[in-house]
Queue: 3 jobs
Job 1
Amino acid sequence: MTIVRLVYASRATDDMQTNDIVNILETAKRNNSKLGVTGMLVFNSTYFLQCLEGPRIAVNHIYQKIASDNRHAQPVLLDYREISERHFFHWSMGYVGEDKYLTNHLMRFSGSDQFNPFEMSGESAHGMLLAISDDVPTI
Ligand code: FAD
């Protein structure tokens, strides 16, 4: 089976309400665990950065649904590749908001203390998600 990793950035729209992040994570965990997809999502009230990894067809299927969701816009693919191992296997969808887990790594991976994933390379974005995942408790 071909396993892939997809990393994208997007911008929240006015349709994104405060409680939506809870709904998104519940939906993501439910759908992703059924399809064998794992990953990590970062959201700071303005920008999203998400990594999805899993079977190629499943990752593409979920990304198509995500990309047409009107709670965010301008999704930009930062990285898409075949991988030999998962990095986020603990999480059907791990989540980090604008907290110390994010700010601790921003300067190292983006050269700025402001989170703007549109300004990051795919490699840096994935590297930052990996570094964050080392800190985040697996719940
Ligand atoms: P449903 O069961 O019909 O919907 C699930 C819930 O989401 C319901 O409460 C519904 O009201 C609500 N919902 C769905 N679409 C919208 C919308 N456009 N506006 C407001 N509320 C809505 N889904 C995943 O499966 N995996 C992911 O990893 C994932 N990550 C996401 C990341 C981001 C940044 C965003 C914005 C969305 C993400 N989603 C993810 C949600 C995805 O876009 C779809 O909403 C979801 O996959 C639909 O699931 P479903 O077919 O089971 O829909």
Note: The beta strands are 3-12, 38-43, 47-55, 72-83, 94-96.
Job 2
Amino acid sequence: MPTRSFPRWLRIVADMDELSQVAAAAVAQAIHESVAATGKCRLALAGGLTPRQLYQLLATRYHRELPWNQVHCFFGDERYVPADDPRSNYRMAKETLLDKVHLPRNHVHPMPTAEADYRHAAAQYESTLREHFGDDPWPRFDLVLLGLGEDGHTASLFPHSTVLEERVHWVAPALAPAEPQRRLTLTYPVFNHAARVYFLVSGGGKARALKLALRDDAHYEMAPAAAIRPPEGELVWWVDEAAAMEIRYPKDAPQ
Ligand code: 6PG
């Protein structure tokens, strides 16, 4: 079966190990470039399982070379659970990266999850971002890391959810179809103002969602990740062969 050539922004690698290695090298380079250009790097971390190995590589192979005291770590989304809950994105990042590198404590900005009303927590995190990014109409993260769900969601932008229409707030409460349902998420305008957005996608379970998300006629209601296309930013999809199966050898291609 002939394989198509793919655009520069779609990097297909063998497996999770190679995905983590090449993406970690790219993240390290992005951090170096940001710090060289502006003296800092504002990074929005992804949650879920896929980025774990990449974070571990940043904390080991790249630990010494990276200027951690000029890096600020934020989060693209969070499950609305206590910070020490095993499902917390903050806890996962803390265990794999944040506790293992010399990041000043005030450079780590977890999304607050202790407020009774998670709508207040969303407003609180927006204030935190505004303190950091100042009066910019939108924050411009130097690098955003994102995953892809099997239903085409990214961060906590789930299909057919009202948060997909948010065009004013930087941070919004969201509802997931699975527990923990309450989430906090950065919104489309924030992601699409980023200087760099790197998706990390691994495994055959994501093949259908990836195919939907990369279609030119993709609709964000069906595959919210499809609408992450920063007009003035670098977008790269780092995917492994299993996740790319549907785009390499599309099932509905003429035989
Ligand atoms: C989360 C993430 C979510 C994740 C995807 C992929 O809070 O779970 O923000 O968007 O990136 O669901 O998750 P996996 O990497 O675990 O497959």
Note: Residues 46-50, 77, 79, 89, 147-149, 153-155 surround 6-phosphogluconic acid (CB under 6 Å).
Job 3
Amino acid sequence: MKKPIIIGNWKANKTLSEAKDWIATYKQTIGSVTKSTIILCPGFIHLQLLQEAKLGIDLGVQDVSRFSSGAYTGEISVGMLEGLARYALIGHSERRKNLQETDEVTFHKVKQARSAGLIPIVCVSELSQAENLLRGAPEFSETGIWLYEPLMAISTGPMGEPEDAGVAGKFARSLQQITSSVPVIYGGSVTPENVTNYLSLPEFSGVCAGGASLDPHKFASLILAAEKL
Ligand code: PGA
């Protein structure tokens, strides 16, 4: 039986008080989750709040600095995250697109994350991105989670029809050929309605939801739909 990995990515959303409301509603809605691994990636400012809320979910960050601690104003180094997060999204397509993050920057961030014991969730939209990373460090293929996010599906909704999932599954198979046995998950307009189209494919070990994770009801229904599979 599949033990799905469900990631929520809040992106640049939520004040502290909105995060508190999310926590209260999520607690009331979720009930008992028995088989999924739930990872929420909120903003850095929300980490402590979510940790104290004891929701039974793992926490991740949406990015880390490519530098270690030191004189890098505005950066969040992996050392600063000690005790706050277990996972780190690295190389998200929105960072590649809006902040011109290259494969080289992504490489350094994966390296930083690994050095601090954070589990990298490496995001790729093209096979060449994975190949470039692994060329520099073949050992990256053995840790963490790889997140496939097709550019046309990120924050665009509506996607996720069985045929879209099938195309994504094909990409995942090619990715698996170069990443050995690490889990590959899917991200891009995942909703409670289409989540099982992805999870029912053998290629995907889980999903990442951005928009759908912002609403605690939607995020909980997405998890519960995955649990029923
Ligand atoms: P989305 O984001 O669900 O809003 O498309 C997906 C992601 O960030 O991986």
Note: The first strand starts at residue 5 and ends at 9.
